[in-house]
Write a structure and sequence with these properties.
single chain; 359 residues; mainly alpha; 79% helix
């Protein structure tokens, strides 16, 4: 018997798209009656990612040595999360692996589309702001310093706008590199600070309160929570375990902590909706708790949660469409005002100088 390989220390990353296609193709082959090892071997042979190919080969070796598919996948937690493994595990235990793989591929596809919607909503403002920062940095470091000597030769009383521009130009000429280096350093320090365990929960809760973006993050997390919990319950995972697994799929620490707190209260005999409503600072809106309460009373909690997942995914779609519409005029007006100010500050003294020469 072959000795199963130790867990691979992977330095690369496996994209969500690769994992989605792997699950979709595995579901199709298993449904067609192809044995797990043969299906995995075929997927490994046709996989373009070297990292993922090594991972699949490791899974194949573990399965050939008698491990279940879930146990083999569990050796690679950076690629296959607990949500993924739980559905595979339940499928193997209940004999519904084909259905669970197919259902898992559908949910991963929805999760992928949700991520794309959020990314597309943030793309436009990020591109515009990045372009503005790059152009502003170029003007500040290379154009404005040259204006200091140019306007210094004028023998006229400069307008206020030009004086402000000259002050900025002189500051950038003397301290420009230091200012930009400090801003980059500050950004790096901030990124490191918000990852500190005691600071991260505070930062994640603050993110949920940001105008527009906070709502986008909140609805995205609500959609993932409802859909993942609904899928787990529908697959037969007990409620308290399903809540813990669903919590581990959340990107926002605030959601993670509240879901784990809710799971602990379930062990004391409380229902999900009751545990959520008891928290005075709950992040779950009344619609969610009321719908969950109705689902628990009717015995259709999994269907209710899947409906809520679709509902909040539609909300994310609506916000992403409106976000660009709302931000576009704000960004254009801001950039227009800055450009207009610079143009006015440069043209006004030149116009006054030419006027004094004619006189």
């Amino acid at each position: 018997m072959k000795k199963p390989p130790a867990q691979l220390q992977l330095f690369g990353k496996v994209s969500f798209r690769d994992k989605l296609f792997f699950t979709k193709h595995l579901a199709t082959m298993v449904k067609s009656g192809i044995p797990i090892v043969d299906a995995l071997t075929t997927l490994a042979a046709h996989n373009r990612s070297g990292v993922f190919k090594k991972t699949i080969n490791s899974v194949i070796a573990a399965v050939e040595n008698g491990s279940s598919l879930a146990a083999a996948l569990k050796q690679h937690p950076k690629i296959f999360d607990q949500f993924y493994i739980s559905l595979i595990e339940i499928g193997e235990e209940s004999g519904t692996l084909e259905e669970n793989l197919e259902f898992l591929s559908q949910q991963l596809n929805k999760d992928y589309n949700l991520k794309k919607k959020i990314q597309s909503a943030l793309m436009y403002p990020m591109v515009v702001l990045s372009a503005a920062v790059i152009m502003g940095g170029f003007i500040s470091l290379y154009i404005l310093p040259k204006l200091v000597d140019f306007f210094g030769s004028f023998e006229i009383d400069l307008p206020v706008t030009t004086k402000i521009l000259l002050f900025l130009a002189l500051t950038m000429k003397n301290y420009g590199v230091m200012i930009f280096a400090s801003l980059i350093l500050l950004a790096l320090v901030f990124a490191a600070v918000v990852k500190i365990p005691k600071v991260k929960p505070v930062w994640h809760r603050a993110l949920l309160r940001f105008p527009l973006f906070g709502e986008l993050i909140r609805f995205g997390q609500l959609a993932r929570f409802a859909r993942n919990l609904g899928v787990l319950l529908k697959s037969g995972v007990p409620a308290n375990r399903a809540l813990v697994v669903a919590a581990e799929t959340m990107a926002n620490i605030t959601f993670v902590n509240e879901l784990k707190s809710t799971a602990s209260q379930l062990e004391r005999g409380k229902k999900i909706a009751e545990a959520m409503e008891k928290n005075k600072n709950t992040i779950f809106p009344p619609l969610v708790t009321k719908m969950i309460s109705v689902g628990e009373q009717t015995g259709k909690l999994d269907e209710t949660l899947l409906y809520l997942g679709d509902f909040y995914e539609d909300e994310v779609d609506n916000i992403s469409k409106n976000l660009s519409t709302m931000l576009e005029p704000i960004l254009l007006i801001t950039i227009g005002l800055v450009v207009g100010f610079i143009a006015l500050a440069i043209i006004t003294p030149i116009y006054e100088l030419t006027g004094s020469i004619r006189r």
